[in-house]
# Entry
Amino acid sequence: MGKQTKNAPALHVQDTSVAFGDFIALHNADLQVKEGEMVALIGASGSGKSTLLRTIDGLQVAAPGSGRIEVFGRKVQRDGRLAKGLHYRRRDIGMIFQSFNLVGRLSLFSNVLIGALGRIPSWRGALGLYPAEDRKMAMDALERVGVAEFAGRRASKLSGGQKQRGAIARALVQGAQMILADEPIASLDPVSARKVMEQLQELNERDGITILVSLHQVDFAIRYCKRVVALKAGKIIYDGPANKMTKKDMIAVYGDEYEDAFWSAEAA
# Structure
């Protein structure tokens, strides 16, 4: 994606909506994220968190005539149309999914190397002919996230936490300057969830990578992120400091059953 436009936020979402037939999944969303921030997206299932992340990455097209989205000052989509050359602009955005999106039959090492595909000719990637520097980068990334010992193991044989840390390593090999993590700990046990969140926090603090992470576990959001953005029925209804959220704010987001959104971080 190249050098950031001077003074531009890392992420700018303006007046963006997404509709699936008559269902409005995202309603006139406005959001800015500064470079180097780590922001949590919270909200009940169906609130629009995943839709927002997928639209930022260009995996979901906004409604016709709907606003604009820019990442590092470069257009991702505008007026319901994806930007030309989005494939190249997406190189700076690492997407981490709840389902890991690893190829089960490939080794963890090979899955992490996939992050380098944007830098090499497609034929080299198809034949597995990655440059030595990319192979070293992949092993370094696996070492950094703590799963280097499983480099040769098939992804299908790994635990959920190991897969998710592999997905983070892949984003490192990609050279992502922004990570969009869509419910990265939803299917993990508390200990594995803590390790994944600590890894994301470390990437944010040490490398300055901008991170937007959607979470069901509100206590994890408060523990690891300084800022929280809450959605309900496709609308952003809270955007502010994580430690300033009140019981009234929580009820507004989740209703009277708001305590169900907590999963004790202390237990992790």
Observations:
- The radius of gyration is 18 Å.
